[in-house]
Amino acid sequence: MTKEKIKRKRGRPSKADKEAREKQQRRDTFTAWAMAVFMAIIAITLIAFTHNVTADEIVHKFKNPSFSGVNTSSHYLTIENQEFNRKEALEAEIEALKEAAEREENNTTLARFYRNLESRLFAQLSRQLIDNLFGENPQSEGILKLLGNIIEYWIEDGIITLKITDEDGNVTTISLPVGDFTF
User: Residue 8: its pLDDT value, please?
Assistant: First the structure.
């Protein structure tokens, strides 16, 4: 085709243009009717299903009992219990950590050596006291000072009496008969 034939004429529309416009108008009319029918169906559906809709006054109520006053005492009690439990848990955790540190400190090599040495020294002192009471040359009385404590012993009428006085002045007396120790 040449440019002249493609060129549109000015003025009156051609028969094909008229048919295309009429066809477009029919489509537009059908679309408008379809939209109107669809909107009518939606409107009828909304009216049919919304006839039970009711409304009430909007009332604001606080959920927090501190503001509303409803169940305030139990709310405060709950808060107090939570705070108490947190404090108690923290104190228990601190105490557990202190005990763990103390166990660690008591479990060092130096601490074990010190306990073993102390045990052996007390055993030796006890052996010396037994030798003084029952050995080859028994003594009828004596005094032993140990770490601020005073241990006095004497034998009277076949009874050994030990009088132990601690640093605070508290006195403990132990009396043992001599002849009743048999195996």
Answer: 57
CA-CA distance, 77 to 83, in Å (whole number)? 10
- CA dist 48 and 2 (Å) reads 63
Bridge partners for 152 per DSSP? 143, 163
C-alpha torsion sign, points 75, 76, 80, 81: negative
Q: Which of 32-41, 61-70, 109-118 has the highest mean pLDDT?
A: 32-41
Burial 7-19 (b: 16+ CB within 10 A, else e): eeeeeeeeeeeee
Report yes or no on whether pTM surpasses 0.70. no
Structure tokens at 166: 């601690």
Alpha helix (H) ranges present in the chain? 3-6, 15-49, 65-68, 72-106, 109-134
DSSP-assigned beta bridge partners for residue 141: 154
| One domain, residues 102 and 89 | yes
Which tokens is 109 given?
Answer: 């090599």
Burial 150-173 (b: 16+ CB within 10 A, else e): ebbbebeeeebebebbeeeeeeee
**What CATH number is attached to the domain comprising 128?**
3.10.450
Range of the domain at 97: 71-106
